[in-house]
UniProtKB/TrEMBL annotation:
This is Vanadium-dependent haloperoxidase. InterPro entries: PAP2/HPO_sf (IPR036938), TAT_signal (IPR006311), V-haloperoxidase (IPR052559). Keywords: Signal. It comes from the Bacteria.
């Protein structure tokens, strides 16, 4: 269920530098009323046109943090941080430009407040609260961001608006369930049931995440896919035999390019889509307001997609391909032969198989970004794990398709996981757009 705060107006006291207004929230979490428009000035126009790089810079700062070992709390999913960061930046930009629809609440900044200063301060304050050990580097980035933020009075007013939006967003998420202790999950004992996978047999992760309060959707369980196919049936046999052939570490049927795909997309998939969005915004020369809005909608939806796919994963608790293939003698399906030595190309993540996370995230992102950019936009994507490796695509959907299927070639998901994940992502994205 959504946070109770999204069901009523908010009255925000901002002191002498920021006034406040109460607004009602819609079912999607974005406030029903637009903030009051201001008479545009040359300085405001300049900042809006030049300010997209500020939004991108704070997105890059968070990417750097989550990619640094030890900085991301192991039981807090990174997509939550991206959502809070960009919701705060977006609301700060709306408050200082009068353009756009704020998320959950509206803050009216002092007239003439700098939107660049507001965005930078909001980004800084959110990240320092979430990653306090990074305070020094984040403060240096803030100082650099404020250089082009206009006259002193405008800058200070923007800073006040950014501080306020960051504090409010952080307060709203303070008791959202993300800090709960992940409950243990007993290993499955029956055919089809998930159990930890070799070689580490690690305990399943994020077992508590389905209980986190969503950002935009009402309930994560409403996006659960259809029941998993009968293990004795043809669909299941076809899916397992396909990953058996293509996903094995020493497969002779997987093509060279499919092996490249499996390795190219092996890093956290939300990182890729944040960088894809950066590239799309720069390619299309979007301004500050547009960049803030696109990133807010994307990251809020991706955070909800993660909550939804963990709800589905731990509802169905389907075993991974390595388990299904090694224990195939127990599944009742005579079309699948057991192979106790079968090993996938990639290390299997410690959570259930159904649906595929890469497919859910990628379809959510491609569907949402297609509303902001030409769906046939040509983009080049850089791998997070293969130094210097890039792949070029002719559409956002082509990126989503390849990213999802790469997990089949890696041997850690089946085509059933992929297609079901795409359906979940598609449905969730359209729900957030409604």
């Amino acid at each position: 269920m959504t946070s109770p705060i999204s069901r009523r107006g908010l009255l925000i006291a901002g002191g002498t530098t920021a006034a406040a207004v109460a607004v009602a929230a819609t079912s999607t979490g974005f406030a029903a009323a637009h903030t009051a428009a201001r008479i545009p000035s040359l300085e405001l126009t300049r900042q809006v046109r030049a300010g997209a790089d500020v939004v991108i810079a704070w997105n890059q700062a968070l990417l750097r943090i989550v990619r640094t070992p030890g900085l991301q709390p192991p039981t807090i999913h990174p997509t939550r941080s991206f959502a809070i960061l960009h919701a705060a930046i977006h609301n700060a930009v709306v408050a200082t430009t009068g353009k756009g629809t704020p998320y959950l609440f509206a803050v009216h900044a002092a007239s003439g407040a700098s939107p660049i200063a507001a965005a930078a301060q909001a980004g800084h304050d959110v990240l320092i609260a979430l990653y306090p050990t990074e305070a020094a580097s984040l403060s240096r980035q803030l100082e650099a961001s404020l250089v082009g933020a206009g006259p002193a009075q405008a800058r200070e007013s923007g800073i006040a608006a950014g501080r306020l939006t960051a504090r409010l967003l952080l307060d709203l998420r303070d008791h959202d369930g993300s800090s709960a202790v992940p409950p243990p999950l007993a290993p499955g004992t029956e055919p089809g049931q998930y159990r930890p996978t070799p070689p580490a047999n690690a305990a399943p992760v994020f077992t508590h995440w389905s209980g986190v309060t969503p950002f935009l959707i009402k309930r994560a369980d409403r996006f659960r896919p259809e029941a998993y196919p009968d293990l004795a049936g043809r669909r299941y046999a076809a899916a397992i035999n396909e990953v058996r052939r293509l996903g094995r570490n020493n497969s002779t049927t997987r093509t060279a390019d499919q092996t490249v795909q499996a390795n190219f997309w092996a890093a956290p998939i939300w990182n890729y889509w944040n960088e894809i969005t950066q590239t799309a915004l720069r390619t299309q020369h979007h301004d500050l307001s547009r960049a803030a809005a696109v990133f807010a909608q994307l990251t809020l939806a991706l955070a909800d997609a993660v909550i939804a796919f963990y709800d589905a994963k731990y509802h169905f608790r389907i075993w991974r391909p390595i388990t299904a293939i090694r224990l195939a003698d127990a599944d009742g399906n005579h079309s699948i032969a057991a192979d106790p030595t079968w090993t996938p190309l990639a290390k299997t993540p410690p959570d259930p198989s159904y649906p595929g996370a890469h497919s859910v995230i990628s379809q959510t992102a491609a569907t949402l970004l297609s509303q902001h950019f030409d769906p046939r936009l040509h983009l080049t994507v850089t791998s997070e794990l293969l130094p210097g490796a890039t792949r070029t695509f002719r559409s956002l959907q082509a990126i989503a398709d390849e990213a999802g299927l790469s997990r089949l070639y890696a041997g850690i998901h089946t085509r059933l996981d992929h297609y079901t994940g795409q359906t979940l992502g598609h449905d969730l994205a359209h729900r957030t757009l409604a």
